[in-house]
Queue: 3 jobs
Job 1
Amino acid sequence: QVQVVQSGGEVKKPGASVKVSCKASGYSFSAYYIHWVRQAPGQGLEWVGRINPNNGATNYAQKFQGRVTLTRDTSISAAYMELSSLRSDDTAMYFCAGGIRHWGQGTLVTVSS
Amino acid sequence: QAVVTQEPSLTVSPGGTVTLTCGSSTGDVTSGHYPYWFQQKPGQAPRTLIYDASTKHSWTPARFSGSLLGGKAALTLSGAQPEDEADYYCLLSYSGVWVFGGGTKLTVL
């Protein structure tokens, strides 16, 4: 069956970077874009960006341009989101979703001094 | 960046029908925005209900349907069940950049 498994929670200091992984199985990894979405505590969903697993082409929300990098490793059906210059308001649950249909369980990133 | 608008909250009676809407600050929502609808319950990842405005996944309960209505995307729930109480989000594409609506808190009461 389809599974999308994300890496575990992270605690980072302001100004640091974080890299979250997302590993898919049970479907053709190259068939769907991988999207990244975040949700701050008690808030709504926010689209971060997406990557085409076939060619690595990316689109980012304007808010995150220059601070987020999406990559993928097709050999292991994995995608990665790296967010730099972390601030306290980056504290959120980060989700990946294959084709916006197969969701990971989420990764809690906490930014605190 | 475009702003996507949803009703902040709605209430429906058990067995009743309710329609949630999703509008765009740039004008009418069309099939070219590839509207998505998601359900999210507390502590859970979102679950995709509808894509491309009206297409259901295999796991989408039959009581949910999507459409384009009056320049907006719409999610209609017919025959609400207590387990449908949740937050609902729409998502629109703007030439490859996607934007979520603020979400609708649906109460079944």
Job 2
Amino acid sequence: SQTIHQWPATLVQPVGSPLSLECTVEGTSNPNLYWYRQAAGRGLQLLFYSVGIGQISSEVPQNLSASRPQDRQFILSSKKLLLSDSGFYLCAWSVRASGARSYEQYFGPGTRLTVT
Amino acid sequence: KNEVEQSPQNLTAQEGEFITINCSYSVGISALHWLQQHPGGGIVSLFMLSSGKKKHGRLIATINIQEKHSSLHITASHPRDSAVYICAVRGFFGNEKLTFGTGTRLTIIP
């Protein structure tokens, strides 16, 4: 069966510090991978998605970046955190879609980031 | 106006009541997802549907493509159903993006 891991579970970082959140998926190959953010009191927002190694699409311009160094590894980074980066960060995966077909997305446990 | 609107935003009901949560969207879609987010933040996918109706246990999801509307129903509600229920839609043809509603917070009182 497939599992998705995220770490750390919680993180408190000062403004201006760097960030690295990691997500790994087990039990599947060639997944689509996603990073979402949920700010306090707001809905989920797609930040990045990846359909393969080194292939990253950004949905929202910001001071965050994403990388996919391996097939089942997705990393969210920042060089300098802002207060507005606080939120709940979720990684998700889905079977790689072909054409118009849709697949369910499976979410990791999330990382709660507080920037102070 | 958001592309995905959910109603109600908050819903409190007694245990055993029949629950309906609504989702309306304004764009063409290839699929609609219903997700459940528990207080700790974890998200579980409940349904993905593109037409008709699906049922898992006490949960039923329906979608009307012509009216751009979906409903999530919970029969015989239980306190453990208390969570935020989120509707999300996917566009067409290679667009991997899901657009999310802001969620419905459901509280079931024993």
Job 3
Amino acid sequence: QQQVKQSPQSLIVQKGGISIINCAYENTAFDYFPWYQQFPGKGPALLIAIRPDVSEKKEGRFTISFNKSAKQFSLHIMDSQPGDSATYFCAASKAGAQKLVFGQGTRLTINP
Amino acid sequence: EPEVTQTPSHQVTQMGQEVILRCVPISNHLYFYWYRQILGQKVEFLVSFYNNEISEKSEIFDDQFSVERPDGSNFTLKIRSTKLEDSAMYFCASSGQGVQPQHFGDGTRLSIL
């Protein structure tokens, strides 16, 4: 119940295309859903986050879509660029809790 | 932009030895965390620390591990009697008043020989 399942494991997208990464969770007590971006040799960097009171949040080319009834959320990267090539992690935490539960990660490659 | 800094970037230690990983969280943050990432696997929570005590810990964080905030700026993770399976990237994170978001350092790669 504490798991967050992320797919796909790896993704290759052409420059200018849309990258979509999906996550699913079981624990309905989760109420904070961040996405982290990690480049090789670096720590995870917060990209964008959402709470379940909204169905979508957009920041620049990055959008989170959230489906509370399906217990799923996804990251969309519009106009994907080679600089977006990185590993992306979804995560979740419960209200008032500090622990982040991470998905397995998606290695995204944007071909020029 | 303020950042979490971790030292050393790479630590090589013999099995059975003690190791201390160091972190300097963002200066006005109140919550401090350690996570680890075994090569090719997901990031796993170890422990959170608030108001000079452990506030939450995972089943991974057993008696082999301890954390300390020895002064106003550093936050350390000590691993006693290291095992081969402790080899991983260890990330420190910190957050401000509202617990989230958490900001991560670039990690310490721990290699146990």
